[in-house]
Automatic annotation (TrEMBL):
It comes from Gopherus agassizii. It holds the Pfam family Sushi. InterPro entries: SEZ6_CSMD_C4BPB_Regulators, Sushi/SCR/CCP_sf, Sushi_SCR_CCP_dom. This is Sushi domain-containing protein. Gene3D superfamilies: Complement Module, domain 1. Disulfide bonds join 252-279. The keyword Repeat applies. CDD domains: CCP.
Amino acid sequence: CCFGRAGLCVSALLVLALLPRGALGNCGAPPRLSFAELRDEFKTQTNFTVGTTVRYSCRSGYQKVPGESPTLTCENESVWSEPKEFCRGKSCGHPGDLVNGKVHITDLLFGSSITFSCDEGFRLVGQKTSQCVIDGTGVTWSHELPLCEKIPCLPPPEIDNGKYLGDPNSHYTYGSTVTYSCNTVPRGTDSFSLIGEASIHCTSDEEQNGVWSGEPPECKVVKCSNVEVKNGRKQSGFGPSYTYKDAITFGCDADYFLVGSNVIICQANGSWTPAIPTCEEIPPSVCGTPPFSNGKIFPSKPRYVTGDRITLTCEANYVLSDGAKSMTVHCKENNVWDPPVQTCQLIPSVCSAPAFPNGKILPSKPQYVTGDGITLTCEENYVLLHGEKSMTVHCEGNNVWDPPVQTCLRKSRESCLVPASEAHALTQMLLLQSLGMRKRLPLTR
């Protein structure tokens, strides 16, 4: 109490305020560290004098870092010295390779996690993750490596009046393809038509369950009626009987023009598509829709008058006789178009199925057209040039695939990655070979 001695009391307070921080008191309880704990002799203390040193012991799952002292000291400012990482997590070691899959690792020390994934066409059997955990006085992974099993499919559906060709052992896995065909019938009996895609393949859904790529086709008898067009004639498809996908091409007599499509096709339900055209008499100032197979006309109308213009554009994989994709013509009169309408011709844009030993092609077909994409997947124990399991290429036409198709190489523990310079040269060589060239490129190191 400072009653009556105010001057002395104020002076004392000023002296205390000017004293060094360490002279006023001690350090409190030492900090709690995630990798170490105070030794027992220091755990019950809450007040430590300046200069006191406390010792720590590494927690379970951690081990002492050589050369680092596991201590902290109460310094003059009544604060504990900055803790160094004198204990480090123990290592669980590499878990090993996952056959037909990958192990994703960011760290191998205590407390870290790793995840597993399977290559395309395989699914995980086991745990998706594993943690480095305490095991007695050491550490270990919480789960063993899972398995990556080939995704299986049930046998493909049977169809009436038909059969499929596939694995003779009825063992179907991701990438397996089956092709359906219709049963043959005795001569004089209506034959069956295959309605739908002839081939389906085993793929997977979002849950990695094996499923077939689509519904199987049907085999059924299809009949379309014989049709005639008044004031017109058949130019192809003379019949008289018609079945699935049969086509008829019509033309009109002189002084008549065609209203509708000049080609109709027999559909699976026994009808003709598009609608059966008609031939109408040509007024002097009218032009009918010009025949233009494998292309589209804009604007599309059944008839045009003198001066009307239309643009004719070929469908994908087709070009006009002069190589252009489209042309514009105008109606002069009396069903005359100027310039004369050209026809759409198929571009030589076919690619045969590439050679791909020790691997599978999906979808599998004998022939592809420009723009078609396929996925090539190496079989077990085989990888592509840079270690990948699969690649996707597209048909560029004239038997050229982009990027060039690689080959499947057998994996081995001692195998090394191909140097980037050699990989580039090999890729260029494959491209040249796919273009029909035989120029050799040196491999530079």
